[in-house]
Amino acid sequence: MLDRAVSETTKDTATRPVRFRGAGFVPASSRFGGWVALALVIALWQIAGSARLVNPLFLPPPSAIARAIYELAASGALWQHISASLLRIGVGWLLGTAAGVAVGFAIGLSRLARSVGITFISALFPIPKIALLPLLILWLGIGEEPKIATIALGVFFSTAISVYSGVDAVPRNLIRMAQSFNVPFATIVRKVIWPGALPSILAGFRITASVALLLVVSAEMIGAQFGIGAFVLQAGNLMQTDQLLAGVVILSVFGLAVGRVINWLETRLLHWR
Amino acid sequence: MRNCASEVWSFGPSRNDGVEDGRHHMDLIANHITHRFGELAVLDDVSFTVSAGEVVAIVGPSGCGKSTLLSILGGLLLPSSGAAELRGAPPSDSLNPLTFVFQDFALLPWATVEENVEFALLHTQLSSAQRRAQVDDALRRTGLTDFRSTYPKQLSGGMRQRVGISRALAVRPAILLMDEPLSALDSQTRELLMEDFVGLLADGGMGAVYVTHNLEEAARLADRIVVLSRRPGRIREVVTVPMTRAERGEAAAREELLALQNQIWSLIRNEAIDAEREVQHA
After folding, report:
1. Which residues cross the membrane (chain A) (predicted)?
2. Which of B28, B158, B127, B102 is nearest to A180 (CA)?
């Protein structure tokens, strides 16, 4: 009895902190964590390779891949392959992007273009563009043109969709505001719709860059003498897995570099966000 | 004397320049405005005139079509029937006689304060020096000179609306069309901006249509208050505020203004209850 009375008194006067329950759900990436993990995996891979725990034919160690890249660079073959791929990606991406931006804006701004354009895009967008390569070879011959056209087609549809979604996402109140000041149509497009759609357009570039990379490798595997895709395929046919992985590493570096460029563009152009 | 319908002023050459006794006159007329959104009747035969330099508040229960009416008056929406009309000419230096101030500010987020104000002038005939001068003047009048290079997201709500007002002043409006300009702001900021509005409209050089659901704002600013019924909005009553705006700042005026607010509230209270209980259309 007495004990209980005492404890009750304590309960009334003693304070205790409110339990904190707001932890978690705010993932923040540390600056070096990713690099450390990557280095660790490469180190383990190298150790496993050096200790002959894995067959180097199936998975050559990182050192062998690095040597393969060095030899490719030294012989000049590396640049030959990379420049062939870059040319196809560059021209194809630019053509597809230019057409996609133009069509995307038309769909975003004109009722006629929207009703026609969305029907065609919905029908054609899901086709894996690489399936059209044989047809494009028939049409355009076996040179660079069909490869570039395949990339341009793949880039075009994604770009058109991201551009018109971006135009649709521009707040209508800003357009009404501009109209209320009698701002002419062309100025509204240039000063309101273009900057308003830019975030979505740049996000689209990120996707189309990877689409272009995917398509260039596929197209080069189907029929090309030079290019990273052709090189990877030849290396695979000859069981030169170190060379094959060298090609894969180059593709990965290329993808990273493009991502960096788009990050840079976003910080330059979208600093207001 | 100013004439009626035959002298309706439109954006173009007009026969009557509206100059009388050296002063400019431009009236804004709601001429039997009716509007429907599909099946939904929003406004029903609304008619009134905003005379040059006059401040008219439009109040009414939520959803009564106040903002729709303002969009129609400002030429941003075509009414189902009836028309918004102008009579007489605006001051010759007016670049945009009917100028909106928006509830959500409608600022370009990628443009600085200065660029937002200048945006309203870019397409005009002004030389860049004149444009600069007009922007500077508008920024100074709204106390934004020190903030000219900041972006909207860096500003508080009150300062953002000041940018909206600055942009409106830059085009030298004859009539400001203000669509609940304070309703997105907290009560202290609202009070500060209210004082600015009183100062802005004090000399009668600029008229305004002031849409609000806040009866106090209406009673403090307006010369006349148009009270709309619930949807479809019809004019219930037009209340004249029996004081100059200067007199309303005095302590003695407080009770009278409060009585006026209560009078309007009693007009719309039951309708406000009905409006609140109404199931929204999809």
Report:
1. 32-54, 86-109, 116-142, 148-167, 211-232, 244-265
2. B102
